[in-house]
Design a protein that fits this description.
With 117 residues, the chain is mainly alpha-helical. The chain is built from 5 helices and no strands. It is elongated.
């Protein structure tokens, strides 16, 4: 995994804490559930050669993660999306694997921040 990206954008997360207060926990709980499913679908779409689905899923994951301060997943899925849009032939399989690893690291970081049980 490329360690040049922070796992969490604490500035964004702290802003959300101020705005959402206790409701923030539901946001990260939903992230955990929905992103797990989307990552499974992303991998299946890539294995099936469905680049449109890969593009759509990577865009959706990227946007969600950007909004809630999950920096590493945002950066990796942005690479997938940009590579597909610009036809630069990114190593999608490697980037999906990096995204899955980042997902695991993100859950651990959210738990350490007290945002997930």
């Amino acid at each position: 995994m490329n360690d040049k990206y922070n796992i969490l954008n604490l500035s964004t997360i702290n802003e959300l804490k101020e705005i959402l207060e206790d409701d923030i926990f539901a946001i990260y709980d939903e992230f955990q559930t929905s992103t797990k499913k989307m990552l499974q679908d992303l991998k299946k779409a890539h294995e099936a050669g469905d680049s449109n689905a890969v593009l759509h899923l990577s865009h959706t994951i990227k946007g969600s993660c950007s909004n809630i301060g999950l920096q590493r997943i945002f950066e990796i899925t942005r690479q997938i999306e940009n590579g597909l849009r610009e036809n630069t032939n990114p190593d999608i399989a490697r980037l999906i694997q990096e995204t899955e690893s980042a997902y695991t690291a993100t859950l651990a970081a959210l738990k350490a921040e007290g945002l997930l049980p």
